[in-house]
Amino acid sequence: MKKTNFLFVIGVILSACVLPQSAQAGFGVSPGLVSEQNLVPGARLERTIYLVQADNNQSLDAKASVDSGSAKELKNWVSFVPGSSFTIPGGVQQYPLKIVMVIPSDAELGKYTGSVTINTVPPKSGEQITVALAARVNIDLSIGNNVVSDFSVRSMKILDVIESENPRVVFDIANIGNVPVAPDGASFELLNKYGDLRLGYADGDFTEKVSSFSDKKITVDFPVDFKLSEGEYWGYVKVYKQGKVVAELKTIFNVNPGSFFVRYSTSIVVASLLVLILGVFVVMRNRRISRLKLEQGNATPVV
User: How far apart (Å, rounded) are the C-alpha atoms in residues 275 and 60?
Assistant: First the structure.
């Protein structure tokens, strides 16, 4: 009897080791580490992680929490977008979760480590309760007084515009430093549809900055000294940092016909002014005639 029990226990252990752990392998996170070594007090850090589920037929409730370890401050610094409790919709295999860390301006310099745990809350299926899964992201931060001001241009796009509008460019700027930053400026060369004749030039300014450790799309207008009419043009854009060109783009964009008012706005304004002047003249003339008639009617005849 003892031998039978022993063999049964061995069989259970072997089965647990050999059978695939599909429930645990069906949920994960990427990347599994959030690390930044150039933080300064007052900085804001954003990182997007992706929760990956193999079985995505049903929606899945989940909750994110912070295990601050020895760095108790992390619990007050970390938040999540869209929130600490959320639902991964059915049919979604990779769900983005943004981890936001705001470092207080009075934070002590040093190293801070901890982790974020994402626990799933699977629904009950009849009498059977499916296994709750979990994923973990480690956090490794260093806060110092080394200020880093730097950026990279991820992409640029010259927008199509309508007649009489200025060229516009959308810049996707990534701040890879620890303080708010923006490019020193940008330039725009307007070329004809063949790209071999320069028609105009303008400088553009970045009026807003990108927060540390984040990216932002910024649209800049370039008031070229050339009135754009309908057609195809080339644009040559350059981005500057400390007097050097760090990114450039030369591509085609289109100028589309504007509305009736836009196309004939000048003529409409002139015509409106002429009508107004003519109307004022007619009113004044009619008043003068009425006054003269009244004066003649009141005149006393001479005997």
Answer: 68
Helix (H) or strand (E) run with residue 91 in it: none
Q: What are the tens digits of pLDDT across the range 198-233?
A: 999 999 999 899 988 889 999 999 999 888 999 999
β partners of residue 112: 141
Tell me, what amino acid is at 155? S
What is the DSSP code (8-state) at residue 181? B
Can you name the residues that pair with 134 across neighbouring β-strands?
A: 119
Pairing of strands 134-143, 110-121: antiparallel
H runs (alpha helix) in 130-240: none
> The tokens of 197 are what?
């004749």
**CB distance 239 to 153 below 8 Å:** yes
d(CA 177, CA 105): 17
Query: Which structural domains are found in the chain, ordered by start?
Result: 22-143 (2.60.40.10), 151-259 (2.60.40.10)
Q: Are 180 and 151 in contact (CB under 8 A)?
A: no
DSSP summary character for residue 127: T
121-180: per-residue pLDDT in tens?
Answer: 766 655 455 566 788 999 999 999 888 889 999 999 999 999 989 999 999 999 998 888
Q: pLDDT for 248-287, tens place per residue?
A: 999 999 999 986 555 555 566 777 788 888 888 788 878 8
Beta bridge partners of 236: 189, 250
DSSP state of 132: P
Whether this prediction's pTM lies above 0.70 is answered by: no
Dist CA 206 CA 213 (whole Å) = 18
The alpha carbon of residue 212 and the mean position of all alpha carbons in its chain are separated, in whole angstroms, by 14
From 141, 143, 142, 136, select the one nearest 67 (Cα to Cα).
136
CA–CA dist 12, 18 (Å, integer): 10
**Tokens representing 149?**
């001001």
